Amino acid sequence: MRILIAGGDGFCGWPTALYLSKKGHDIAVLDNGIRRQWDEELHIHSLTPIATFEERVAAWQGHAGGTFTAYNVDMCDYDALAHAVSDFAPDAFVHFAEQRSAPFSMIDREHAVLTQTNNVVGTLNLLYILKEVAPDCHLIKLGTMGEYGTPNIDIEEGYITISHNGREDTLPYPKQPPSIYHLSKVHDSHNIMFACRAWNLRATDLNQGVVYGVQTDETKVETALSNRMDYDQIFGTALNRFCVEAAAGHPLTVYGAGGQTRGFIHIEDTVRCIELAALNPAKRGEFRVFNQFTEEFSVFDLAKMVERVARDLGLNPEIQHVQNPRVELEQHYYHAAHTRLLELGLKPHLLNDSVIRGIIEAALAEKARIRTDIIMPTVTWS
Ligand code: NAD
Ligand code: USQ
Questions:
Q1: Ligand 1 pocket by C-beta < 6 Å: which residues?
Q2: Ligand number with the minimum distance to the CA of 269
Q3: What homologous superfamily does CATH list for 2-374?
Q4: Could you list the active site residues?
Q5: 127-148 pLDDT, tens per residue?
Q6: In terms of pTM, does the model score above 0.70?
Q7: 298 C-alpha to center of ligand 2: Å?
Q8: Can you give the residue ranges of every domain in the chain?
Q9: How confident is the model at residue 311 (pLDDT cuts 50, 70, 90)?
Q10: How far from 251 is each of 246, 343, 345, 375, CA to CA, in Å?
Q11: Alpha carbons 229 and 370: distance in angstroms, whole number
């Protein structure tokens, strides 16, 4: 297949591009480098040193199974994006290219507007381009489990059947997103659903949970291919942060009570889910939704697991209940369906001690680069 991966320089996009390339697909990676710019502006960094976009693309050329090309394009630049889509003519367009941090979106009004403009306009541009240039191309869009929030009933995969006043319908599942960032994903979902209905496009919205892990088989091939590892208060996410904190001798930062339960997925499974979605495309006019995670954990339970594995490694971790910077439920019901990717053949890499040990060891290997001053949360919701 010809697969264009937007956000191909990022944490999820880069390993996905390499994995699909190794499988023999013709791949184009598209990115405008904005994430690297945000890191500089916020004085944060990837714990693992990462090559420039140009260097890592060049480093992969010798390993690629099919063609491997790059576009330095902003999703919000309609003409440049239209040119890339016409030029590459993808069968599938995988869209990772968004501002993806909830805390970033809550810094202030400017960051909220930047997040929603970047994400919603980029996706809307793409929908018009698909309509006009590539109506048969399958859009595979990264959404988020956070779109649903934490309702007191089971979460379904995109849709729920409701009986009301004696009538029944299957409708989009209610959305209660917990940040301006998560809201941008809800807006995207609505726009994509409309485009499928009105313009007969085909799309899969992948409501992904929190991703953990760092490297994949492909990013380990040489150091120039290394994937990024975020641990700061803005872009770092729960499990990876706890592992870096344990390696640094910093308290494990459980926000509030820690009963916040989320869906989690290993980066090795993220890349396989994209492959499964691409190989099994949505039908023309179909807007399908898959919940892309493999297991549910509360953040306190994750911290306990990291604490135990870190002790086995001779470290001396402690769990700290930090005042919660977010407005969110800290104890709640959580049970979300996630069968559709399993039905397509996903074989999950489940979390265990050895996976956690691997993430802590990856952090220990870069211990000298860990900056404890960027760990504690300062961005608050209220
Ligand atoms: P990332 O920040 O590492 O990568 C995103 C990439 O997109 C960056 O390289 C950035 O430069 C690029 N980008 C952003 N805006 C762009 C634009 N306008 N034009 C071109 N390129 C642009 O993020 P990630 O962790 O790889 O996340 C990728 C996607 O997956 C996001 O949409 C995110 O919402 C979703 N997701 C991530 C996680 C997670 O835990 N990391 C979980 C669920 C969903
Ligand atoms: N949390 C802690 N301690 C920390 C960091 C986070 O207790 O040090 C808690 C948060 O309060 C929250 C939960 O862990 O309750 C998850 O937070 P997170 O920062 O790990 O993840 P989140 O903000 O939800 O965002 C991440 C990605 C985002 C993606 C989302 C998937 O950054 O791109 O959309 O995970 S989901 O959570 O399913 O919406």
A1: 7, 9-13, 31-35, 74-76, 96-100, 118, 122, 142, 144, 208, 210-211, 237
A2: 1
A3: NAD(P)-binding Rossmann-like Domain (3.40.50.720)
A4: 144, 181, 185
A5: 999 999 999 999 999 999 999 9
A6: yes
A7: 11
A8: 2-374
A9: very high
A10: 7, 40, 39, 10
A11: 11
